[in-house]
Design brief:
Helix content: 40-55%
CATH class of the largest domain: Alpha Beta
Distance between the termini: 65 Å
CATH superfamily of the largest domain: FAD/NAD(P)-binding domain
Bound molecules: flavin-adenine dinucleotide
Shape: elongated
Largest sheet: 8 strands, mixed
CATH architecture of the largest domain: 3-Layer(bba) Sandwich
Length: 470
Amino acid sequence: MSTIDFSQKINSTSTRRRVAIIGAGLVGSLSAIYFAKRGWDVLLFELRKDLRVPESTPSYLHRSINLALSARGISALRIAGSNLIDVVLSQATPMKGRMIHTGEGKLHSQLYGTFGECTYSVDRAKLLMLLLDNAEEFKNVKIYFEHRLKRCDFDAGVLDVENINEGTSSKIEADLVVGADGTYSTVRTQLMRVVRMNYQQEFISHAYCELRIPPKRNEKGEFEFAMDPHHLHIWPRHTFMLIALPNLDKSFTCTLFMPYEQFDAIKTEGDLIAFFQLYYQDALPLIGEQNIKKDYFLNPKGSLISIKCSPYHYKDRVVIIGDAAHSMVPFFGQGMNCGFQDVEILYEILEQHNINPEKPQINNINTDNTKEMKFRKDLERALDTYTQFRHIDVTAICDLAIAKEIRGMVALAVPESHNSAVHYGKLFHYAVFGSSAEMETTKFLGECGRRIDHFGYFCDVGVGIAVWQL
Ligand SMILES: Cc1cc2nc3c(=O)[nH]c(=O)nc-3n(C[C@H](O)[C@H](O)[C@H](O)COP(=O)(O)OP(=O)(O)OC[C@H]3O[C@@H](n4cnc5c(N)ncnc54)[C@H](O)[C@@H]3O)c2cc1C
């Protein structure tokens, strides 16, 4: 057993309380900034290498290369720092609506709203680097890459963390543990051992594969976008769909969502090209036959999972946020956005409960004990409030996202689909552009419950509207 050296930035005699954040993904890194700004000593543990070290980049790109950032995420980034949101938006591409590509090669633009509403295409790796840089600017933050949380003794406030390179373990003490360690969270698993957690997990029948539309050259020989960059492009087809989001280098990242059996049925380059010629005739020349042959067979086929659980906390000791608390299928593009919003709401609730990270001065042992007890009680109440408040909204969005599974797009093309499309259009708007939509979303979810039962499945609201409009 070895000990981690805290001497560089944070020492054990600090007068501030310590939060140990597990997982330096998007949500964990943002929460490090929030806690640091409010004066906590922050230890951030990440099992992977530092993304900013060039050779480690590919391991982070196991998931979508770019993401749609929307109202919930923007609000949380803005509160983290006006400079931060300015930099993020300066590196993002605004998407003011969907561009539907029909089977006949026609294009239909559907604006997200009449007030200029848009979502922003952001580069996952760049955003994460920015958050990590920002977190490291605080003197009270220390990030440990290649450190894996193994287990937790929450009652004792002790974590067992392994240094992956050295194969050694350390005991880490913390006043609070924040689990931001993603879909397959170790913190959540440890939490399940001490609370009666309700837990629900569902894999959907679709997988996804990423492809790329490279920039094209114009008459002057300069690179430009091969399609309109200010739309999220969607090719809705039967039980599958292709989408494309713009990148700063003028390329698009495409994601093909399709049932596993259909992926399995494409065995050869010939099968692949025939499939694209049949369903995505206009996309094929944009991607390029050589590129698609390479990317399709090389790139992983990722599974899509939905996880809901409750409660998110145990006493005053630990809370889980982001995908660790709620993984959602990506058809609303809300996973990261909701994770960012978790951070904003958690911190708001801590402030409402006057959770002060300053430790009491050691003067009188009795007074200190009373103060410590009060701190612990207040923190427990705050975490309990967080679970109660957050669970409603997050569950509603997880349910909406999974209900929007693709297979129902055919069902939506029946005459009834006009109403459905309008209805789901409203849902989409609440989920994507609402900043705290728990009431509205739950209300609308209740209203659409009958339709979900009726159709079994239905698809992306955008796709629904698209099919209806064709
Ligand atoms: C195809 C696809 C498209 C998506 N598109 C969008 C979109 O457009 N908009 C959107 O908002 N969301 C989108 N999402 C969802 C989004 O990717 C996730 O919600 C987001 O990445 C969650 O961030 P996180 O920090 O909670 O978890 P993660 O990003 O998974 O980070 C968790 C971190 O914890 C680390 N970790 C795990 N276990 C341990 C351990 N034991 N010890 C230490 N560290 C550990 C991991 O290495 C990782 O770095 C999409 C997802 C997919 C799959």
